[in-house]
Amino acid sequence: MNRRDFIKGSLAVAALAALGGCKQGKETTDVKEGSNGKKKGEMTKRKLGSIAGEVSLLGYGLMRLPLKDRKNQAEIDKEKAQELIDKAMAGGVNYYDTAWVYHQGMSERFAGEALKKYPRESYNLADKMPVWEVKSIDDAKRIFQEQLDRCQAEYFDFYLMHSLNGGAWPNVRDNGALEYARQMKKEGKVKNLGFSFHGDNKDLAVIADFGGWDFAQIQLNYFDWDDYSKEQYEILTSHGIPVVVMEPLKGGELANLRPKTLEMLTNARPNTTAAQWAFEFIASLPNVLTILSGMTYMEHVEENLKTFSPIEPLSDEGKELLAKVKEFMKEEGKIPCTTCRYCTPCPVGVVIPDIFKMYNNYRSSLVKWMSQREYFQLAKESRADACVECGACLKKCPQKINIPEELKRVHKEFTS
Ligand code: SF4
Ligand code: SF4
Percentage of the chain surpassing pLDDT 70? Predict the structure, then answer.
């Protein structure tokens, strides 16, 4: 996409906002900097809506940090993780996203330790209120203050009501969580107030209508675009709410295409990775403020910095090719698990996301026995057939996966 197309895109979004009405009386989309015109090696940044300052289009999601023990999410390998943060900071990434529950509470602590050596104004720290733990304004106050302590911070640049949906919204609106966050914004301890969302589009419209939001975080990638992401993006854009994107690679799935699928992309552009295609798709949406990537290894950071410094939004031909790739992928029969781990821990010990990851590797790999072997190396109580169908995981899955049913299918296929 050339500069003219990019500006045209921005105007289209502004027109959409005019149609939908701008609830907060502010510019819907004000893309100060596109990627074009940027120097090679310079991170693409955006300035949108009421948000002060420019935000790097690549954001760091601190939920998949390197671990010392891969079975223990709380055991972050701090030395390795610090190296990743240092590399990202040096490359111009200025948005770091943590949450109360990431790495069993250790992500917030790590964020505090890793970022304290940098001037506070050189990065944006995003954290989230675990709304399911809030019954009263006193709970909200206690949690918020502990989050500041964990992060060694005086304030949060971005603060979100975590994981809203139609069921959670009335509680959050009325039980003190939102009230306290708004109070913190008035006191300057929250600079920008938003929410993350996993739910139905009609509920997103209700929450957006409520108003007072500076930004919102949704799952958006080319695979889910026509199913729900497009409508969610348009709802937020029409309300003048800048979008923070989570799961741009669908839990890594869009970066690990099976060889035949990948060939469709490499035939078009031999030196472009599958992840780069996915990021460029999102970069072509002008109301996206930042794209969160949960980078675990140095190669992830280095490759992403290369992609975003600067990033070229995807052409219309490129988008058509991704639509074909999606159709091809649908035939692979993978489970749409993003390994977010919200379903864990399972009360009997089934390692749900690990099993789904093994299965998805199994579906896309030519060396299927390796995934099968990995599955049978799991302790018996961790395998899919240990599931007692209690249903505890079902309501926690934002992807609405029928986990017990899928576990049965996986076990059957692995043992066949
Ligand atoms: S339904 Fe199965 S996998 Fe889900 S929590 Fe219960 S036992 Fe664990
Ligand atoms: S099954 Fe659902 S909740 Fe569990 S890790 Fe996968 S996407 Fe997340």
Answer: 90
